[in-house]
């Protein structure tokens, strides 16, 4: 079955970086776009960006431009989201989610990775 | 950015009730509107895409309508498993944006 499995919870200090992985299975990895979405405590879902798993093209929300990098490893069917310059307000659950063409809807989601930024 | 406003922020309803949630966009988004259900501690689940396309496996008591700036999600007969938070999301423009959510609670 189609599945996205994310890496485990992280605790980071302000100013450092975090890299979260999302391993896909059950479908042809390179034919889909993958998004990253985050949800801070009590806040609405926030879209961060996407990557075309086939050609590696990316698009980021301006809210994260320069701090977030999304990459993929086609040999491992895995997408990565790296965020630098972590702030307390980056404490959130980070989700990867597969794109449903042509709707840009998120049809399959990872289980989420909790990233806590704490001194 | 396109702002998405949901109402009500929360609702209290009984099993069997008909429930309607609205989502308003700050500009016209045609029918580029998706709906999700999220339960505590879980990832969101896609219910409806393109304003009214029910996803495979989603019960037919869920329906979506609207175009332009005003959209609705209707649950025709609320079931115990439907108590959750519902989000709309526009995919007309970048950045993709979500509504603030509507939490459906048991009366």
List keywords for this structure.
heterodimer; A: 119 residues; mainly beta; 7-stranded mixed β-sheet; 4-stranded antiparallel β-sheet; 11 strands; 54% strand; globular; B: 107 residues; 50% strand
Write structural notes for this entry.
The complex is a heterodimer of chains A (119) and B (107). The radius of gyration of chain A is 14 Å and the shape is globular. Chain A has no helices and eleven strands. In chain A, 0% of the residues lie in helices and 54% in strands. In chain A, a hairpin with a 4-residue loop joins strand 7 (68-73) and strand 8 (78-83). In chain A, strands 2, 4, 5, 6, 9, 10 and 11 form a seven-stranded mixed sheet that branches. A four-stranded antiparallel sheet of chain A has the order 1-3-8-7, with no helix packed on it. Chain A has strands at 3-6, 10-12, 18-25, 33-39, 45-52, 58-60, 68-73, 78-83, 92-100, 105-109, 113-117. With 119 residues, chain A is mostly beta strands. By secondary structure, chain B is mostly beta strands. In chain B, strands 2, 4, 5, 6, 9, 10 and 11 form a seven-stranded mixed sheet that branches. In chain B, strand 4 and strand 5 (45-49) form a beta hairpin. The radius of gyration of chain B is 13 Å and the shape is globular. The chains are: A mainly beta (119), B mainly beta (107). The A-B interface holds A 35, 44-47, 59, 61-63, 95, 97, 100, 103-107, 109-112 and B 32, 34, 36, 43-46, 49-50, 53, 55, 87, 89, 91, 94-101.
How would you briefly describe this protein structure?
Chain A has 119 residues and is mainly beta. Chain A is 0% helix and 54% strand. In chain A, the strands form two sheets. In chain A, strands 2, 4, 5, 6, 9, 10 and 11 form a seven-stranded mixed sheet that branches. Chain A has a four-stranded antiparallel sheet with strand order 1-3-8-7, with no helix packed on it.
């Amino acid at each position: 079955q189609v599945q996205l499995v994310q890496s485990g919870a992280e605790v980071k200090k302000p100013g450092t970086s975090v890299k979260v992985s999302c391993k896909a299975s059950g479908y042809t990895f390179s034919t889909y776009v993958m998004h990253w979405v985050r949800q801070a405590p009590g806040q609405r879902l926030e879209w961060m960006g996407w990557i075309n798993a086939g050609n590696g093209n990316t698009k980021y929300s301006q809210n994260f431009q320069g701090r977030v990098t999304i990459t993929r490893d086609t040999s491992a069917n895995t997408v990565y989201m790296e965020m630098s310059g972590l702030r307390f307000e980056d404490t959130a659950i980070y989700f990867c989610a597969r794109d449903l063409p042509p709707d840009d809807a998120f049809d399959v989601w990872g289980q989420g990775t909790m990233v806590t930024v704490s001194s | 950015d396109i702002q998405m406003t949901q109402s009500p922020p929360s609702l209290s309803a009984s099993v069997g009730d008909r429930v309607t949630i609205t989502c308003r966009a700050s500009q016209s988004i045609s029918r580029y509107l998706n709906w999700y259900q999220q339960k505590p501690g879980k990832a969101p689940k896609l219910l409806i895409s393109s304003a009214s396309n029910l996803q495979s496996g989603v019960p037919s008591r869920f329906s979506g309508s609207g175009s332009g700036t005003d959209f609705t999600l209707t649950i025709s007969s609320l079931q115990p498993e439907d108590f959750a938070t519902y989000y709309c999301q526009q995919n007309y423009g970048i950045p993709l944006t979500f509504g603030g959510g509507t939490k459906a609670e048991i009366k």
